[in-house]
Design a protein that fits this description.
The protein is an alpha+beta fold and 670 residues long. The protein contains 17 helices and 39 strands. It has an eight-stranded antiparallel beta sheet. It has an eight-stranded antiparallel beta barrel with strand order 24-25-26-27-28-29-30-31. Acetyl-CoA carboxylase is a heterohexamer of biotin carboxyl carrier protein, biotin carboxylase and the two subunits of carboxyl transferase in a 2:2 complex.
Length: 670
């Protein structure tokens, strides 16, 4: 039985850092690989050795099988861990690794080939008694036949890429009139993401829940499951929040689904870590979706509730060891939740972002909080890869405590540089659909405005807290300066608006979401009048690390509010009613020029590649008509006409790489 002493990690970012952590604990040498843009990445800094494998695009580096094998030979690695994504579910890669005399830390190529096609996997599961969703999985992909099968299945239905995953190549079609366009788009996305455009059709289960079971198999024929994770909080089929255990399962249903998951693994002689994904309908009937043949992004929630290190299990199983526990020994303790922190802008349709993380504040590990991050402050979030910043995982005695712990942990997070989804996550975990445990996979897409709507102006309590922090900061700064002078007690050194013979007034300006808010305050840092639409009396009752308590109003029984508040860098960050408000000090009453509405152009919202142009010069187009499709950070972006008009110029061609804000289509003036 071989002992693994060195592992090459054929991946990057968060998962590479995660694998390195376990390797280091076990005394295993960890070898990283990196592309041009990743030369200074965190996983490179953490590894015992790092080898350059090519250009920044995945096809030039992390997807190059021979280059990765050459790096393994150069480093003397004994095994290769694929992480997730890239080559992790590529059977050709597995065979090449084994042919090179190396250990592949994952399932066999044979099981990958059986499961690599969603269509073939469904047929296989059906023969082994695992329930599947009715649909069409045939090889005949003639559009006319697919359209005919769609009519037989009925609407709504789902078109899914037969090869691949991660929410790519999936479309819900609700009527026959939508089918042709959805099929074309799905096939194009599937071909771009997975190299094959084959699709399958299946009945769309309305308002389902997504329940998945972690399975593990060893080389001795033993397969067990480690209970479930619920991943029903999704946006465009991408998981946003994962938790274990699921509130939707009782013990009888958990046992039935667990048995089906093990049966699915046995159908292909599964080895190492895998995840069997199910749809759970409102009628409590469940159906097989697919087996992900790798470690999942959300594996930490299973680690938290079971106490097992799944990466360690992967390494031991790959070395030929038997699974360390029997099914009866798998217990779930407490409740765990994972949230995915991304560089994406919720206010602009969740467009992925890129750029340097000028500031990155994350909570420290410990006391039920775990952070798995692939970047640190000063690192680059690259446009070439998934824009994940970190995974925030919490573990508590029960679900309500876990949700409170997640809220507290999120309040400690802050990103400056690319936009982030922190505010969206805060609203998500406070939403009744989540707190009451009734969210389904389509809820976010149906009600996204409930999670992204922003107030026109911050509440008065929030403005009062921001002004109090601003005044306190000015006072501290002035005291610091006065200590350098001759008279430390001079009233002229204090920035409190004090004047001879009249109440002190001073202007304060704060920038919020691109707007400048101007106020006049009267008083000092501990008690002042804030002149808004009406005058508000503010008294600072208590100021401590991470919070501020204010008495708002005139009477002695006026309302006292405690708000989470802190000062990351020069900014002020206030939390109130599951909403975060971030302010930046500005010059009072500064003039703001108007911005071009851009109604005569269509611009690239971010760096990416043009994959389709659906208009020509001189075309008459309608507002919101799709004119061009871009691919960026593993997703398709449809760019639409800003108004009715005539296309004057198209600046680019299919395949071109364009920069953010580049003009792609210009309209005639009108």
């Amino acid at each position: 039985m071989p002992t693994i002493h060195s592992v090459l990690i054929a991946n990057r970012g968060e998962i590479a850092c995660r694998i390195i952590r376990t390797c280091r604990r076990l005394g295993i040498r960890a070898i990283a690989v990196y592309s041009d843009v990743d030369a200074k990445a965190r996983h490179v800094r953490l590894a015992d050795q790092a080898i350059h494998i090519g250009g920044s695009r995945p096809a030039e580096s992390y997807l190059r099988i021979e280059t990765i094998l050459a790096a393994a030979r150069q480093s003397g690695a004994q095994a290769i861990h694929p992480g997730y994504g890239f080559l992790s579910e590529n059977a050709d890669f597995v065979e090449a690794v084994e042919a090179a005399g190396l250990i592949f830390i994952g399932p066999s190529a044979a099981s990958m080939r059986q499961l690599g096609s969603k269509a073939g996997a469904k047929e296989l599961m059906q023969t082994h008694g695992v329930p599947v969703v009715p649909g069409y999985t045939g090889e005949d992909q003639a559009p006319a036949l697919l359209r005919q099968q769609a009519e037989l299945i009925g609407f709504p239905l789902m078109i899914k890429a037969a090869h691949g995953g991660g929410g790519k190549g999936m479309r819900v079609v609700r009527s026959l009139s939508e089918f042709d366009e959805s099929l074309s788009s799905c096939q194009r996305e599937a071909a771009g993401a997975f190299g094959r455009d084959r699709v399958l059709l299946e009945r769309y289960i309305e308002q389902p829940r997504h329940i998945e079971f972690q399975i593990f198999g060893d080389a001795h024929g033993k397969i067990i499951h480690l209970n479930e994770r619920e991943c029903s909080a999704q946006r465009r089929y991408q998981k946003v929040l994962e938790e274990s255990p699921s509130v939707a399962l009782d013990e009888a249903l958990r046992e039935a689904m667990g048995a089906a998951a093990v049966a699915a693994g046995k159908a292909v002689g599964y080895r190492n870590a895998g995840t069997v994904e199910f749809i759970l309908g409102a009628d409590r009937q469940f159906y097989f979706m697919e087996i992900n043949q790798r470690l999942q992004v959300e594996h930490p929630v299973t680690e938290c509730v079971t106490g097992f290190d799944l990466v360690e299990w992967q390494l031991r199983v790959a070395a030929g060891e038997a699974l360390p526990v029997a099914q009866s020994e798998v217990k779930s303790r407490g409740h765990a939740i994972e949230l995915r922190l991304y560089a994406e802008d919720a206010d602009r349709g969740f467009l992925p972002g890129s750029g340097v993380l000028h500031r990155l504040s994350l909570p420290a590990d410990g006391d039920g909080v775990r952070v798995d991050a692939g970047v640190e402050q000063g690192d680059l979030v690259s446009l070439f890869y998934d824009p994940m910043i970190a995974k925030l995982i919490v573990h508590a005695a029960d679900r309500p405590q876990a949700l409170r712990l997640a809220a507290d942990a999120l309040a400690l997070c802050d990103v400056e540089g690319p936009a982030s989804n922190i505010g969206f996550l805060e609203r998500l975990i406070a939403h009744p659909s989540v707190t009451e445990g009734r969210i389904d996979t389509g809820y976010l897409d149906r009600h996204l405005d409930q999670f992204t709507e922003q107030p026109e102006r911050p509440p008065a309590a929030v403005l009062a807290a921001a002004c109090a922090l601003h005044l306190a900061t000015e006072r501290e700064d002035s005291l610091s300066l006065s200590r350098q002078g001759e008279d430390r007690h001079s009233p002229w050194a204090l920035a409190d608006g004090w004047r001879i013979g009249q109440p002190g007034q001073q202007p304060i300006s704060l920038q919020w979401r691109g707007h400048t808010l101007d106020f006049v305050i009267e008083g000092h840092a501990d008690a002042f009048l804030l002149h808004l639409d009406q005058t508000l009396k503010v008294e600072v009752v208590r100021r401590e690390h991470g919070s501020i308590s204010l008495r708002l109003g005139e009477s002695s029984d006026a309302e006292v509010l405690r708000l989470a508040a802190r000062q990351p860098g020069h900014d002020f960050l206030i939390h109130h009613q599951a909403q975060r408000y971030k302010f930046h000090p500005a010059r009072p009453f500064e003039f703001e020029g108007s911005q071009d509405s851009g109604a005569n152009t269509v611009r690239a919202p971010m760096p990416g590649r043009i994959v389709a142009i659906q208009c020509q010069t001189n075309d008459q187009v309608s507002a919101q008509q799709v004119l061009l499709v871009m691919e960026a950070m593993k997703m398709e972006l449809s760019l639409r006409a800003p108004r009715d008009g005539t296309v004057a110029e198209i600046r680019g061609a299919v395949g071109d790489i364009v920069e953010a804000d580049a003009v792609l289509i210009a309209f005639e003036e009108g």
